[in-house]
Give the backbone structure.
Amino acid sequence: MEGSHRIDHSSKIRLGCGHWRVGALGLETTVEERNRVILDTVKDMLARGDLAQAVRTMSDLHAADSADVLCRLRPSDEVEILVSLDPAVAARALLEMEENHQVEVASRLRTGELRELLDRMPVDEAVDLLGDVPESQRARLLQLFGREEAGEFQALLAYGDETAGGLMTTDFVAVSPDDTVDDTIERLRRVSVEVETIYYVYVVSEEGLLEGVLSLRELIISPPDTRVGELLSGDVINVRPEQDQEEVAEVISKYDLLAVPVLDDKEKMLGIVTVDDVMDVFSDEAEEDIMRFAGATGLEEEAAAGGLLANLGRRLPWFIVAVVVEILVAGGILKLYSPLFSRFVVLIFFIPLLVTMGGNIAVQSSTIMGHRLSTGAPLKRSALRAVSGEMAWGVLVGLATGAVVAGIAFAFHLTPSVGVTVGLSLALTVVAAAFMGCALPIALKAMRRDPSAISGPLLGTTMDVLSLAIYLCIGRLLIG
């Protein structure tokens, strides 16, 4: 069953002309296990020289499962099955593969075979693959397409990969303002197989200018003889081809769109960016932000460009700064308060708890703050809401954890002053960590710097020093 993570016991997996019942094993078979069984079966068929049976088996799979099985075969077997499948089925399977593997498979296909698969892909997906293959192979492929198709591909390839132009597809439904509702619905029926999305109909003038957008709902509830131009109202949300993909994703998310039109400077319609295209953008940007906050952004690109030295040159300075600060500042604080430790050795045992909690809370708050700032909301409003929320949360967490630690200290029959010192220090450390995690991204944003430039080592080292200072100052006041 498509989209299900589990196969029902009574489900059947069709293998060629026969059937294999999953429940026959008496196991609750997962999709992963099922695909492993299919993989072994296909390998056996190929070993027996029964290519036709293997192709029939792969033809009955969901495109995602087909891609999963194909990727695990030997390269020669993978290509042999792919070119033997129906081109539309093979194209869907190729689209489900990881980008790097797509390029590997494309490099093993003959130019004519790859051209046939590209012809059955959505335009934006075909352009993405064309942009990834070597330039010499791309030139040969474009020669096999007609002049109009090749020109369309080349125009889309001219846009950057991470722009609206690089994401958009030119497959959309456009009608004239003079067309009636009935004519438009009839046209949708005719082109529904060819067009990637038909949730919106774009009303375009003879000059190619976008005049408005209609949803399927508006068409269905309108009288059949009404001209579509009479149904238009309000401005149309749109983006420019040079806009960054993250901005496009924010527009689609903000206005709850299934697709957004792309217009040039003269308001001519170039294409649309669909919501499924920006889903990958959200995933990629989230991963990139996480890597930035960890101080590891761009490592894959740098490793590819400059290898180990480029990677080392980016990451090493952060750790050198952290080591120097820890030795000079944190070590100096510990030395300054060494008489306190000599009298109350038990205080040493709580240092790891304080510095760990401080670092974890600070990184967590900075990640949340950085995400809020990246949404494009005004700085003052983002700062006010986020800081107040994080500080309130930090106070509550600090009081709760501080009380727990103080209770543990009392349970081990430590002096009351030690229990109060540890509990109060932890509470203040959590509050300070929440504040620092919010303050540093806001400061960078105010200076027009990337908030995610705060790396884990820098923020962690800052909180180590601050946690120790809070702990030992309170210890000296209450105990010393």
